[in-house]
Design goal:
The complex is a heterodimer.
Chain A: E1 2-6, H1 16-28, E2 32-38, H2 42-49, E3 56-61, H3 70-80, E4 84-90, H4 93-105, E5 111-114, E6 116-119, E7 122-127, E8 132-138, E9 143-147, E10 163-166, E11 176-183, E12 196-200, H5 210-220, E13 223-226, H6 228-232, E14 253-257, H7 263-266, E15 274-279, E16 292-295, H8 298-312
Parallel strand pairs in A: 1-2, 1-4, 2-3, 3-10, 4-9, 5-9, 12-13, 12-14, 14-15, 15-16
Antiparallel strand pairs in A: 6-7, 7-8
Chain B: E1 2-7, E2 9-11, E3 33-35, H1 37-51, E4 57-64, H2 69-78, E5 82-87, H3 94-108, E6 112-116, H4 127-135, E7 139-148, E8 152-159, E9 162-169, E10 172-176, H5 188-194, E11 199-203, E12 215-221, E13 230-232, H6 235-244
Parallel strand pairs in B: 1-4, 1-6, 4-5, 5-11, 6-10, 7-10
Antiparallel strand pairs in B: 2-3, 7-8, 8-9
Helix pairs in contact in B: 2-5, 3-4
The chains are: A alpha/beta, B alpha/beta.
Amino acid sequence: MSVLLIAEHNNKEVKPFTLNAITAASQIDQDLHVLLIGSKADDVAKSLSEVPLVKKVLHIDHEIYENYIAENYTAAILKHADKYSHIICSANTFGKNLMPRVAALLDISQVSDIIKVISPDTFLRPIYAGNAFATVKSNDEKKCVTIRPTSFEAAETTGGSAEIEKIDAADQSENTKFINREEIKSDRPELGTARIVISGGRGLQSGENFKLITDVADKLNAAIGASRAAVDAGYITNEHQVGQTGKVVVPDLYIAVGISGAIQHLAGMKESKVIVAINKDGEAPIFSVADYGLEADLFEALPQFLEELNKLNTIQK
Amino acid sequence: MKILVAVKRVIDYNVQIRVKEDGSGVVTDNVKMSTNPPDDNAIEEAVKIKESGKATEIIAVTVGEEKAQETVRKALAVGADRGIHVKIDGTVEPLAVSKILKKIVEKENPDLVFMGKQAIDDDCNQTGQMLAAHLNWPQATFASKIEINDKSLQVTREVDEGLETIEVNTPAIITCDLRLNEPRYASLPNIMKAKKKPIEQINASDLGVDTNPRIEHIKIEEPPKRKAGIKVASVEELVQKLKNEAKVI
């Protein structure tokens, strides 16, 4: 039997985390099919077919899929699920919303947010905000699995030539209607995939002061993150939140500024390769995970940091 | 309108988790337990809707061991009218919880079911969506704003790209984000009053639902520890280390 991966996209492009999920799915079984549910998404089908790890692209094209609605996606997936041993997608807000609905209707106990494939039925997943790792074995005949994207490399996107098969749409749910999405456009790298992330916390004291973070982010070509406290206080919008209930990031460099380091925040960033903490409280728990800690007032340290970076002039854009 | 709110008892969010040496789980003896944080937001939202005159009754339900009742009692103290405790010992997977909750929904016929978007112990993020699937109801997950209309709700959801708004017809399942509202504390008089509110106990085994775990926990272990870092004395030193030692800039 093959594995079926559900693609996330915006009808124009594949979302990057789908490529990480493809890598994980191919470790479960190399006979990997990707299901693309969309409206006028032929370009997406073509780019998925060029991913060398993908053996086949199943494409459902119908106007009811112009916007992603879990109810409509679920019906489409169930129509084509029987031939597959595993149904897989990324464990971001897309997959978290979708997969349990699919799993329940297949009477499968879902395995959420895996960080390692041990065998086709056994996986490693973090629990308790990453304070424990559980090795779990699914005894369901068919499996529904979501993948923590940052724990797997993104798949290569060129060189493949998988077959694209058009398949049928399913019925539309009448009880859920898409209204709108406030997508904040930015030229910065995406938080989930950026090489460098600089995050601000309550220590910033206001939304205006986040400019200190933004200036450094511009210089380093970094994505901007935030602690839950900073988002709750309205300093910055929700899509920047890093942590147990926000996003998980694993950049090469994570710079935490004015963030004390509650376990819920650490859950979202402690796998980063190099961690820097700038905080005036020397006892702050963030220092326990930092490779380089600087005990300093961020309002003095950040402008200095920018100045030093400007002196280097070797930053890779 | 009747609102059912599902709550879960978990290890308190402030507790530093300790893994048992035999790899069988985490230490729960003598550890502070609380209501799962976003479940507090779910209760709060239901109470606010009732206070605005749009709901007539709030029922708090939990699934778990004897002590899980404490979370229902807490929900009663902040404004739920009555409680249901479905008693079951041992591990109950979200799939089983959703099947149990379906039975409760069929018995109580609520117009809305609220719960937290994820439990902070197993971090599964499944139960609400699964319940919606079993009932064939619409789902609005990760809600940070809810507007109630006549036969529908407009729900703003926190998604990776920012915010998304959908409209769902009732009956519907809503899973709540921590930013939906600011949960209130129970006042002492309300805690006293809550002691008199009824909690119905139901044995899970009487509901005719398969609750056997499908997932085996082979081993629970500590995550690899990060090795201790150093403190730098100045910004200059920090930049120098990042460039020459860590080589990340």
